[in-house]
Amino acid sequence: MVYIYDTTLRDGAQTRGVSFSLEDKLRITQALDDLGVHYIEGGWPGSNPKDLAYFETVKGLNLKNSKIVAFSSTKRKGIKIEEDANIAQLVKTKVPAVTVFGKSWDLHVTEALKISLEENLELIYQTIEYLKKYFDEVFFDAEHFFDGYKENPEYAVKTLKAAEEAGADCLILCDTNGGTLWYETEEIFDAVSKKVKAPLGIHAHNDSDMAVVNSLIAVKKGAIQIQGTINGLGERAGNANLCSIIPNLVIKMGYKSIPIENLKKLYSVSRLVSELLNRPHPANLPFVGDNAFAHKAGVHVSAVEKNPRTYEHINPELIGNRRRIMVSELSGRSNIVNKARELGIELDKNSPEVKKILEKIKYLEAQGYHFEGAEASFELLLKETLGMSKKYFELKGFRVFTEKRSEEEEAYAEATVKVEIPEEIAREKGIEDRFEHTAAEGRGPVEALDKALRKALEKFYPSIKEVKLTDYKVRILNEAAGTGASPRVLIESTDGKRKWGTVGVSPNVIEASWIALVDALKYKLMKDDEG
Ligand SMILES: CC(=O)SCCNC(=O)CCNC(=O)[C@H](O)C(C)(C)COP(=O)(O)OP(=O)(O)OC[C@H]1O[C@@H](n2cnc3c(N)ncnc32)[C@H](O)[C@@H]1OP(=O)(O)O
Ligand SMILES: CC(=O)C(=O)O
After folding, report:
1. Residues 49, 50, 51, CA angle at the centre, nearest 5°?
2. What is the pLDDT of residue 373?
3. Segments in the chain below pLDDT 70
4. Count of domains observed in the chain
5. Residue 4: its pLDDT value, please?
6. Which of 171, 273, 417, 447 has the fewest CB within 10 Å, making it most exposed?
7. pTM of the prediction?
8. How far, in Å, from the CA of 238 to the mean position of ligand 2?
9. Domain holding 207: CATH number?
10. pLDDT in the model for residue 220
């Protein structure tokens, strides 16, 4: 049995740029409990009022699987343990388990704590002995254990023995600076397990990109507790990523830990943490990233179609992720067939339509289009080629101008747009005048154009009012051409029910924006028709 100890709410909160609210901490606690994590380190109650409030509030959650753990250092030097504010706050939490970190590297004892090596052993012993009177489980985080062991193995082991003799339930070897390589972890675990009897655990940082492998090797060498964080959050380069450790441990290494059926929740827990931090979810995370099972190359897609094992190390559904197929200039016909199937359209790989769609994609990508971030433009292209979409309107012309009358005055833009609605649609709607000629103002030319186009179309298609632009990005494609370069415009839109991306490319940035805007509105009308 390997116990999973999550420190997202404590070491994860030490990530640069991260600040969890109390509500975030409680939501993450519930999600981790639901996933089946064994221990959740909620914070350091002696550190700040928020962590203190967490330990008060968390008692109200009806947790099914996880034990809440409070964290602190060993007692301060030069005072009695009963006088130590950190230790007093730990005791007040009345949680089932606590973890204290103590110094295992002689450098830290003499340089950071500025006490003798003997005194440090006393701090460790006294703190653990005292806390054992109040808590079922007391864990000892041997800070900098690996660096300490490399410089003074005898002393590093003495710190573990002090904790063991005082009654620690698990001795966690910490790679605090994250510089340890996998074979060193292996050797040090081998040596230490001969010298202490208490169970061992590991807490690894990722400064050498070794945190996951060090954690798994430690398990191979007998560790029964792994400390880590969701998405590898943590001080500097982060902590060991539990989203990689858990599936490797359970699915591949076959250890008893979190039940395998619970792993289906891993992807959503990982996303929840990104959402709460208001950060983009890192797409390239193994297992739980959106790219983890995304296939772009035609050769890969063709093989995955036949048997997913050809390019997937596990079934993505086991951890709640899914397969994604991208369409681009690197696609083959399999990508098109697969993408069409996602849209509910069955195509024959050898049909002329598939060939035509693929050729169009390759041609447009060579012009600068990029369909990966513009799935709505791809869907329109596919359905237009297959004759499955209506022509909703035709442009009869647009004009945009920008004026700035003086240094002081803000620049201003105005656009006029003329569109024509097809006869059959006008008849259906009982509208006689099929032409609409409108003008609108905006702070910039694209805003003016967007407003004028909507104004022109709203009379025929009132649901256009629901569409909002949520993102607008311009990328210059052939930078060397300077002002003659071709811009690519990517637009993201929403109607409150769904979000979609469209793309436009032209040497004229206004026209590139127009193409992407038109696709955005056409897509909305097509989806409304499809119900
Ligand atoms: C490896 C890790 O990540 S451990 C976790 C680190 N996390 C944090 O530091 C976040 C929370 N920390 C805090 O809120 C604050 O640092 C507090 C409340 C704990 C302490 O604040 P302050 O009392 O102002 O002290 P400050 O942070 O400046 O210095 C830390 C003190 O703890 C002492 N200390 C550090 N580790 C230990 C230890 N294991 N045992 C005993 N004392 C320790 C240091 O020697 C220093 O004492 P000094 O003031 O006598 O030099
Ligand atoms: C305890 C801890 O957070 C560390 O050693 O990194």
Report:
1. 95
2. 84
3. 479-484
4. 2
5. 98
6. 447
7. 0.88
8. 11
9. 3.20.20.70
10. 98
pLDDT score of 478:
73
Which tokens belong to 514? 């127009």
ipTM for the whole complex: 0.96
Give a yes or no: residue 49 inside a domain.
yes
pLDDT digits (tens, 9 = 90+) for 489-531: 999 999 999 999 999 999 999 999 999 999 999 999 999 999 8
Q: What are phi and psi of 471, to 5 degrees?
A: -155, 145
Domain end (from 258, 276, 297) = 258
Q: Rounded to an integer, what distance in angstroms lies between the CA atom of residue 106 and that of residue 83? A: 26
Torsion of CA 110, 112, 113, 118, to 10 degrees: -30
Of 328, 289, 358, the C-alpha closest to 503 is 328
Q: Distance (Å, rounded) from C-alpha 289 to C-alpha 294?
A: 9
Ligand 2 atom nearest to 143, measured from its CA = 5
Q: Would residue 284 count as lying in a domain? A: no
Residue where a domain stops, chosen among 460, 476, 491: 460
Domain of residue 454, residue span:
393-460
Domain assignment present for 86? yes
Give yes or no for residue 99 CB within 6 A of ligand 1. no
Domain presence at residue 355: no
What is the residue with the minimal CA distance to atom 4 of ligand 1?
101
Q: Which helix (H) or strand (E) holds 319?
A: none
Nearest CA to ligand 2 atom 4: 176
| 71 Cβ below 6 A of ligand 1 | no
